[in-house]
Amino acid sequence: MNANLKLEGLSIIGHHRAKAAGKAAHALNPATGARLEPDYFAASSADIDHAAQLAADAYLTYKQWPGKERAKLLRRIAELFEANAAAIQERANQETGLPLARLQGETARTCGQLRLFATLIEDGWWLDARIDRGDPNRKPLPKPDVRSMLAPLGPVVVFSSSNFPLAFSVAGGDTASALAAGCPVIVKPHHGHPGTSELVALVVQQAARDCGAPEGVFSMLFGSGREVGVALVKHPLVKAVGFTGSRNGGRALMDVAAARHEPIPVYAEMGSINPVFLLPGAMRQNAEGLATGLQASVTLGVGQFCTNPGLVFTETGAASDAFLKKLEQLMSAAPPGTMLTPDLCAAYDNGVERLSRTAGVRSAARVKPDGRAGGAQAGAALFVAAADTFLKDRSLMDEIFGPSTLVIQWESREQMLAAARALEGQLTATLHGTPEDLAANRDLIAILESKAGRLLFNGYPTGVEVCHAMTHGGPYPATADGRSTSVGTRAIERFVRPVCYQGFPDAALPPELQEANPLKIWRLVDGKVSS
Length: 531
Fold this sequence. Notes:
This protein has helices at residues 45-62, 67-83, 85-96, 100-123, 173-181, 194-210, 227-234, 247-258, 280-299, 318-333, 342-356, 387-392, 413-422, 435-440, 442-449, and strands spanning 12-13, 16-17, 24-28, 35-41, 130-132, 146-152, 156-159, 185-188, 218-220, 240-244, 266-269, 275-278, 311-315, 337-338, 361-366, 377-378, 381-386, 404-410, 426-432, 452-457, 496-502, 523-525, 528-530.
């Protein structure tokens, strides 16, 4: 397979490449500023139509593939990804500045989640097959035979993220869950790592060929601006969208999808400030230790995680003073790091500068890089404000994507609870405390349950375990639909809908709903779970 991993800068449509046309763009090495070859050509409107039509045609066949056949495709993608990992990681390192160790871990996560979805769809229980047998003798009216299960929506457009060039990208969680559900995928890769995206797309394309998948089950269309992405979302043959990125970008796609003649769901993960509440008992026991853990979480990966703890709440007093003193020391000593792109770095610098000029906010630590390398170097920043300032200024809830955090000091429990109620929807909310703290703050926990998709106790939100129980989502604006997750096996539920069959003869039913249960899956039959 390695011989086929040739970068050409052309979109991949089914089994073929598009022609070199449209606007050309190129990648940059954010650590050095060096231009990376080749040029990447934006997909044309004809390319978009072709990919969408191939995907719609493939859907008619692919949706009927048994779970075991789709699982083979997912496992083949993982196998080929691992076989070509060195080349993929080398290019990703050049395009993103992420260290090889991080990219190796991301490779394991990417392949692990592909195999996790493969196991899920082999088991079949996720289809939620339900059978209510008919009873022609029921009075006063006969009871019809009613059976239902989840079915794939159709072609899905996946927008890659900037900060996970492998695990939230071309073969990442959105693609894995959509293919697992039975939906063809058209990927719009992130402009920051086009070469990485092309290499992974070639892996997926080869896996589809190897498994005999219908042409069009996978395509990838380049385009550095919004034109290609918007055209894909508007296309009438597209039935759903998965997106990871900024609030502005996600909101724009939501509006485009809602304005269609046939509106479609957009599952957008749009960022979060991930509040951390340091409760009094924990602060009295370990203020400096909490500062150490928080600093490590804030600066991990140059702060480029959607779960970065950007907001911290603590009670005023001696413990808070000790915490802040230690945190200021640690943040001031943190070395600058390379962000993923110069544009992201510029946005981070603007956000930090804006916050430093906000009335009532104190700049407690700020590391300024020398600015000589690559134009994407960012330094850590720490800010402090009082709870009453936070409650009066909603701009303090704006996400600053990078290695910064804002500490809010409350003077009373009422202020703390008011601040919690004021929060927007979040991916995570964290509490550090003792068992006594938890017992005394059940009202705070109840508020945070309504604000976040994942609650953590005595931990830090950076790091998302890929498993069946994980929720990586939250109320708007953390995500477009707070009932969904983009990590874990529940992510498959975004790309399916329930379909009911009433009065069908057994032979005409899908195998999952036939009386003999030929696939031996768990089903709800007449109100009782059976296999």
